[in-house]
Amino acid sequence: MKKGILSLIVIAVFLPVVFAALSFGGEGDPAEVLREGCARCHPGVYEAINGYKYTHPDQFECVWCHLKSPPGGKEMDVHVDAYSRDNIMLLYLKENRPYRLRVKAIDREGGRAFSRTIEFIPGTLEEMAPDDGLPPVISNLRVEEVRSGIFYSAVIAWETNKPALSSIEYGRSADYGDSLKGHNHYATDHRMVIDRLIPRSDYFVRAVAEDVFGRSLASEPLKFRIKKPFLNSAAPVDVPAGTKPEVEDIGVSKVRGRPAFRWRTNMAARAIIFMEETRAPDAGGEPHYPGLGDRVEMGLKFCQKCHSDGIHSAGGGHPTGRVLWEKAKNAEGLPLGPGGMILCTTCHAPHGNGNEFILRKKALEICNACHYRE
Ligand code: HEC
Ligand code: HEC
Ligand code: HEC
Ligand code: HEC
Ligand code: HEC
């Protein structure tokens, strides 16, 4: 019986996901498949969510809120601090373990967007489809900023027409002599800082771009002289002001034996890649493997992963966790955690409802429900 459920889940959950994840930009929403996994036994939750007016974004990504990380399974968050539109990151993962991954993109104004979730097993990924076969093209090489300190430093910026490693060669003559090289993150928007520059001296710099297939090309040299600090913030504007960030596409394939995660955003954005090993190969037929989180994990700690303190306009955040119930009294419809703890889900309905901010009661009523006056 256990075996039967296992193969069903493996087929129903993983295979289609892996195939869908293979083709970058292809059809087939892997999140859809995950959803099906939970929908089979919890159809009511789906119907309810579909009927709600207000829901949490990614409300159907049930696994993120509900399933724990497997014992020994790793949770890895990778911070990519460079702002770029098209990115490839090579990952170090085990060949035969399943992984779950999503990316959070953050633009220069702090606007955020989450991608959908994808699941894959590195060993089953296909090679990245060959592209035009040409090395990357470098454009717009420039000195974007000069900063002064004990020494001067210069921010060199450029773009490439496809994701490439950032690297520069520089020096006091056209023979260069020094170099800086980035690792692992292939981007289309590049920035590197040269330190310890001597004022009133001439420098030569050129960018070198290497794509994931190992093809590289160097730009024409750029000659510059360090005078006084400046900031040329006239960086290429790729979107109209006020545009919100969006993750347009994500996918995983293999490049030279390693999983390569690619994501594209509608504007230059930095990113955090949330990654988890999801199931041991011998997980058995347990549909909730590696286990459901308890209510405190799900309804408080998990929420704080994405929502830091100070989210509430009213006073910068309400006390949560263990609280004193001397000045307030709990009200019906606002469920507490064990020991009278206030959770995020005490006030917010985790699956949605008809109230703004998915509040369990209308905003005007919810405070007075506990803080009533005689
Ligand atoms: C094979 C059927 C099956 C599948 C698939 C399944 N569940 Fe369940 N789930 C159950 C059953 C039966 C229970 C109640 C018994 C228990 O707690 O294990 C339950 C309980 C739960 C509970 C706790 C409910 C409570 O009242 O505390 C949550 C949360 C949950 N499932 C989430 C999920 C999520 C998320 C998925 C998809 C990853 C999922 N389930 C997939 C059968 C399933
Ligand atoms: C934003 C996080 C989040 C998401 C996404 C989410 N849940 Fe939940 N879910 C919770 C929390 C928190 C609770 C506990 C509710 C409580 O304490 O009252 C819960 C409760 C449940 C329960 C048990 C009680 C009930 O309300 O029915 C089930 C079953 C369940 N969720 C299934 C799912 C399924 C299936 C999905 C995907 C469609 C899903 N959840 C998506 C956070 C989430
Ligand atoms: C994976 C990251 C993530 C997690 C985990 C998460 N949220 Fe969110 N939440 C978001 C994003 C993204 C938004 C959209 C608005 C924004 O950017 O703040 C949002 C919005 C909200 C909103 C505002 C909804 C509205 O209508 O304006 C509430 C309330 C909220 N989350 C509560 C919760 C609660 C409660 C939990 C835990 C059960 C939780 N969130 C867990 C990412 C997350
Ligand atoms: C579920 C019941 C409940 C609800 C709903 C509730 N509160 Fe509270 N509130 C409490 C409790 C209990 C405390 C005492 C916490 C402590 O001091 O340990 C508290 C404390 C406070 C405090 C004092 C904070 C501090 O740092 O000492 C303020 C202010 C407050 N609440 C405002 C609000 C507002 C505004 C709302 C509506 C958005 C609200 N409360 C909704 C139960 C509630
Ligand atoms: C005591 C009730 C209460 C608790 C507990 C509570 N919230 Fe809220 N939350 C509110 C109210 C009321 C609003 C809407 C008005 C506002 O922004 O203050 C709100 C709004 C939000 C918003 C939307 C903010 C915005 O401006 O878009 C997010 C996100 C959110 N809450 C997340 C959380 C998270 C995460 C937790 C747990 C750490 C939590 N809340 C705990 C009452 C609560």
Describe this structure in words.
- It is globular, with a radius of gyration of 25 Å.
- Helix content is 18%, strand content 33%.
- It is built from seven helices and 14 strands.
- The model is unreliable at 1-31 (pLDDT under 50).
- It starts with a helix and ends with a helix.
- It has a domain at 296-370.
- The chain is α+β, with helices and mostly antiparallel strands and 374 residues long.
What series of H and E elements makes up the topology? HHHHEEEEEEEEEEEEEEHHH
Structural class determined from secondary elements: alpha+beta
Average predicted confidence as pLDDT:
83
Using only CA atoms, what is the Rg?
A: 25 Å
The coarse overall form would be: globular
Model regions low in confidence, pLDDT < 50 over at least 5 residues: 1-31
**Biggest sheet layout:** 14 strands, antiparallel
Q: Count of helical segments?
A: 7
Bound molecules: heme C
Total number of beta strands: 14
Distance between the termini: 60 Å
Helical coverage, percent range: 10-25%
Strand content: 25-35%
